[in-house]
Each structure stands twice: as C-alpha cells, then as structure tokens.
Known about the structure:
The protein is mainly alpha-helical. It is 75% helix and 0% strand. The chain is built from eleven helices and no strands.
Amino acid sequence: xxxxxxxxxxxxxxxxxxxxxxxxxxxxxxxxxxxxxxxxxxxxxxxxxxxxxxxxxxxxxxxxxxxxxxxxxxxxxxxxxxxxxxxxxxxxxxxxxxxxxxxxxxxxxxxxxxxxxxxxxxxxxxxxxxxxxxxxxxxxxxxxxxxxxxxxxxxxxxxxxxxxxxxxxxxxxxxxxxxxxxxxxxxxxxxxxxxxxxxxxxxxxxxxxxxxxxxxxxxxxxxxxxxxxxxxxxxxxxxxxxxxxxxxxxxxxxxxxxxxxxxxxxxxxxxxxxxxxxxxxxx
Length: 283
C-alpha cells in the first residue's frame, strides 16, 4: 500500500532530526547514520521537490537563501571536504545535516518558513536589543553565558572565526527558527508556544553537541553527567535564547532578528577567548 505524502513527512522528519543528533553524539555510528540520513533526505527530495531547485516561491525566503544560506552552506561543505579535523570535530557534520534539513524544509514547505522581509530594519534593531540583554546577563551572572561551537585549531583563527561568527548564526537561525518552528506547529497541529519550546530545546540539544560533549569521547556515564553539569548554565542559556528568539522571529516574521543578535554574541565570545588564549576550554 502506497504511503501518503502527509504520512511520509510526519515519519521522516523526526527520523532525520533524530539521526542528525545521534551521528554527532556517537561518532562510532556516524558513517551508518550519515547513510541513513542521506537515504531519507533523497527520498524526501524526490517526493516533494523532484529536481534541483534553488529558489522559493516566497521572496522573503529567497533573500535568506540567496544572500545567507547558500553561501554559508557551500563554504561549510568545502571545509568538511578539505579538513579532516573539522569533520572529526563533529561541528562540520552538525552544520552539514542542518543545511540539508533547512534546504528541504524551505523548498518543500515555503508556506511554513520565515525569511527576510523587504522592510527589514525593525528586525535588526530588535535583534541588537536582544544582544545587549544577553551581554548584560553575562556580566551579571557569568555562569549563564553561551559557549561557541568547536572549531579545530588547524583551521586557523580566520576560519575558526568564520565558523563561529557566520556559520553558527546563519545555519541555526534558518533551521530552527526559519524552517523547523512553523513546520512543527502546522504539521503536528501544535500551538505556537509548544512548537517554540520544542525548537528551543532542540537548539539546546545541538549546542550540547557543538560544545564537544560526545559520548564517544567519554569513557563512562559519570563523565558524561559531570561534563554536562559543568556547562549546564550555558545549555540553559542556549535553550532560553532559542525560545526567546523564536518568539521574536515569529512575531516580526524576520530571520534578521536572530542574525542581528546571534552574530554579535558569537563575535564577542570569539574575540574574548581569542584575546585570553583560552580556546582549549571550548574545543
């Protein structure tokens, strides 16, 4: 019996998201996970897109895809291909699978995605306000701060900065807030509040991976528990940020709300640890 498109996407979407978490969390199954992820992604592509397509029917989406997503995704793919250290760190894999999921959602379901509106100035000002708020929070309560993703030393400081300041904000904004949030709400008939909480927690989950807490690198569950507790403040902050920025992106219907806050947050963290010479603490 043939499976309907509706049933297919409701089954395949959570499967791909789940696999994308496990292939980074457990390096030993990464190859097998990537094969499964690739097969599922190709099946999704063939069922909903059918042939190579790079523009959406929504002009707001096209502004994000053309000027932010495609250049970033291609540069990340380039680094994954040429740098074994970047692949092995897990960060390149995280952003590779997020790029695929983002592409599939934007091109398959443009009615559920958020891009960049023609009048984008308000979103930038709101985003900068969020950046100031998190800057103040970090000064008042340093435990509740954000770490930056792993970026191996072999990339050099320039490309480490590119990964942290450009890759992370652009790809995370498009995947979690731009595509995944409204898709979950509409396809699974959830309220915005529930969909926003889900994407915020998934965002926190991916940060657990990006911070370098891989099961394969830890010998015991005690070590995993201890390492997780050590960065619990940052994980809580990532979840809180994800939920707050999700609400604002949805309210102002603009990805720029996140980019205007996430980029300066990551830039501040990058240059702070660079000047302090403490990159060892974040990978």
